[in-house]
Write a structure and sequence with these properties.
By secondary structure, the protein is α/β, with parallel strands linked by helices. The protein has helices spanning 46-54, 65-73, 80-87, 127-135, 143-153, 168-180, 199-212, 229-237, 247-255, 272-277, 281-289, 306-315, 346-356, 369-381, 395-407, 440-447, 468-478, 500-503, 506-510, 517-520; strands at residues 158-161, 192-195, 220-223, 242-245, 266-269, 296-301, 320-323, 334-340, 362-365, 386-389, 412-415, 430-433, 457-463. Helix content is 33%, strand content 11%. Helix 5 packs parallel to helix 6 (168-180), helix 6 (168-180) packs across helix 7 (199-212) and helix 16 (440-447) packs across helix 17 (468-478). It starts with 45 loop residues before the first helix and ends in a 44-residue tail after the last helix.
Amino acid sequence: MTDPSTAPAEPTEHAPLEAIPAGEAVVATDAHAEPVVPDFPAPVDAEPMEAAIDAPTEVSVDAPADAEADALSEAPVEAPVEAAADTMSDEPVDDDPDYDDGYADEPEPTLPAEPARPIFADLGLSEAVLQAIADMGYRHPTPIQEQAIPYVLMGRDVLGTAQTGTGKTAGFTLPMLDILSGSRARARMPRSLILEPTRELALQVAENFVMYGKYLKLTHALIIGGESMSDQKDVLNKGVDVLIATPGRLIDMFERGSILLTDAKLLVIDEADRMLDMGFIPDVERIVAMLPPGRQTLFFSATMGPEIRRLADAFLQNPKEITVSRPASVATTITEGLALVAEHDKREALRRLIRTENVQNALIFCNRKVDVDILYKSLTKHKFSAGALHGDLSQTVRFATLEKFKAGELHLLVCSDVAARGIDIGGLSHVFNFDVPHHAEDYVHRIGRTGRAGLEGRAFTIAAPTDRFAVEAIEKLTGHAIPPVIVAGLDPVDWAEDDGRRASGRRAKTSRCAKRVGRHAKSCPRSRKSAPNRCRPNGLGATGTGSRTAISGADAATTIWVRR
């Protein structure tokens, strides 16, 4: 007798496969037969198969038939999706027009649209001025121009604080052209006055009037030192609408009877903080007293210290205050660096930085005019294309050097702070501070020559160990530390414990007159009556108080007298 467990099952003895419900076990018809486990699964529907895969149940082949049946009976028969559908069948669905889930009516979140940038046509300027602006390729005003121009056109006094390179020159020249276009000037009586601290800045403003006023019949005169006074008188006698002047030469012309300021209805004081540093404030106060009291005054400064604020309160009436950036901030387009080297390695450090950097054109600032000449000779000796610019050079030499630098004939220009705010070179790639400036504000003015008009710029400062406190003052003013730069090949040094400038100072060390007042007052040749204040602290007599002289003016090369 054949063993039923080994006998092959006849297909005819089973129900058709398609008639077997999905998920149920297949058993033999003989009661004594063992359950047959097929070698392959029977074809089932897709949805039950997915349900079985989600919750598989393992069944042992050697298990009894009843245990196997119990295990298989616990397997899910219907798909979870169908069960979920049954449980939610009584709830409203999205297709129901009355259904509201609380989110259907909410609009999708959108990012706020960026405000449209203003254009010059929105500021109320005349067509003639707008045409000149368009010819130069400008369309959008800078923040200082956007805020200042409407108030100037309204006749309001303006107090503007903006760092150099923000376009504040056009912020007052453009509305002035429209204000002055309605009438004509009389001989020796200019209709407006612009005071600038340096000749370079005065020339720059004059160039702006020529470019922006080419479609207007307005005249201007430039009253600066180094030019023929008789030629300037001839221009004034013809009548000018805009007078651009430095304080010293303007007072000279006034004392000679060559000019009257009683008809000047508009006054611009530009770079007021620089005028304070250069000692021009008494001259400015005297000039303002010559103007009519009902004038409109525009007062601009890169920084706003207490003394500048006092002057603004004295000169302005209910001004509109405009600040486009925090005082003494550095433009974000400028990459800064600080190289700390020994005093005798400074020139070598500068040469190595110039060679390693991709310098297209650069300004190199020194604190003293004598240092400008020494550094210029050193650079030319090492085959660098360099020029020198400082206040002791004649006007002809200064203009010629500056024109060569603008034309690209010179790649490096060594200069003093007198030219820091008067040089406007488009696309200046680098600024090097060969000396850490005496005044922290000068650091901002120096490096502000690069990184203009959205272009990237690089500024490096070369510091000696005794410059510690000067660097700390700069970092305090700007609100951030200057990143250190390592000059390869030079010995590293650390900051000195004391400030060499305060203790003895480089100026005092090089001065032959830095002696004790009581011991050498008679032998000092500069203590004679011909120059009574040259060797006395702060312009006082030998008995004056104070232990050292404050160095005023960026280009002060006069040897000071140190009293201990």
